[in-house]
Amino acid sequence: MNFSSSSNDQFNQTDLEQYDEAWNDLANINIDALDESREICSDCQRPQSVCFCLDIEPIASLKNHLIVLQHPNELKRCLRTTKILELCIPSSNYHLFNGKRFSFGKFTRLHELIAERETVVLYPSSDAVSLSEIFPNKASNSLNVLVLDGTWSQARVLYNSNPFLRSLRCFKLDTAKPSMYVIRTQPAEICLSTVEAAALSLTHLESNPIIFERLTRPLKTICDHQLHNGAVEHQSKEFLISRGLYRKPLNKKIRRKLETKHFDKNATPLSDSNGLLKLLDR
């Protein structure tokens, strides 16, 4: 298969990254929120006409804790999914910290939480184990599940900018299902939204499938509303490339990586796409 390429090999990759990010931001603009005359729900912080609180069913209790390290740029996104986590998970089990560098001096509570029990990080590092291999320590009977909230490139920045994260055990998800968050472009088929990733992790650790349903139900409502009001369903960059539908220029490094892969147009593309993830989310 021939892949799109730039007519100029010196194409400015930084410009392309900014172009992709701008289109992502544009696609996620909440048109309803632009009307300042509309009342905003005090809980989900969305206009009353698109409030998803009726789909919120709080989880009564959890043994494990969820820690979210959120990249500052996520605050600019009107459709971020961490609000669902905040409304569904008991406040004693949900901890969100916003920043880039989480030093002990500025984020004392974060480091206290990490010291209280074993912490595992959802991140596809080279030594990450499968989620199915993660179980709470019998002594404490609970874990901290630490999730990085942002685009994949932002998640890499968070991981690489905080050395203490590299001392913690990493795990990756076992799912081959595409993201339900179809109104936001993902770099690869294995990429999920923060709420989906948290839902899968907690469902496994708590051995309770109801958790996944409760956490993803509001996400489906959000997507259905946006699609009903003119948004289009997004395919991942990986999906588009594998089917020859990706029209933006690809640099030499990405083309070489892609050309080593075999694409089956009738199969889920690149189920082993961790290697491509770093290249596609640019």
List the helices and strands and how they pair.
Layout: H1 13-27, E1 65-70, H2 82-88, E2 94-98, H3 108-116, E3 119-122, E4 129-130, E5 144-149, H4 152-161, E6 169-172, H5 194-206, H6 210-228, H7 237-242, H8 252-259, H9 274-280
Parallel strand pairs: 1-2, 1-5, 3-5, 3-6, 4-6
Helix pairs in contact: 5-6
Task: Briefly say what this structure is.
The protein has 282 residues and is an alpha/beta fold. The chain contains 9 helices and 6 strands, in the order H-E-H-E-H-E-E-E-H-E-H-H-H-H-H. Helix content is 33%, strand content 10%.
List keywords for this structure.
single chain; 282 residues; alpha/beta; Alpha/beta knot; six-stranded parallel β-sheet; 9 helices; DTW; EC 2.5.1.25
Written overview of the protein:
With 282 residues, this protein is an alpha/beta fold. It contains 9 helices and 6 strands; from the N terminus they run αβαβαβββαβααααα. A 6-stranded parallel beta sheet has the order 2-1-5-3-6-4. Strand 1 (65-70), helix 2 and strand 2 (94-98) form a beta-alpha-beta unit. The longest helix is centred in the C-terminal third of the chain and has 19 residues, at 210-228. The radius of gyration is 19 Å and the shape is globular. Residues 1-14 and 262-280 have low confidence and may be disordered.
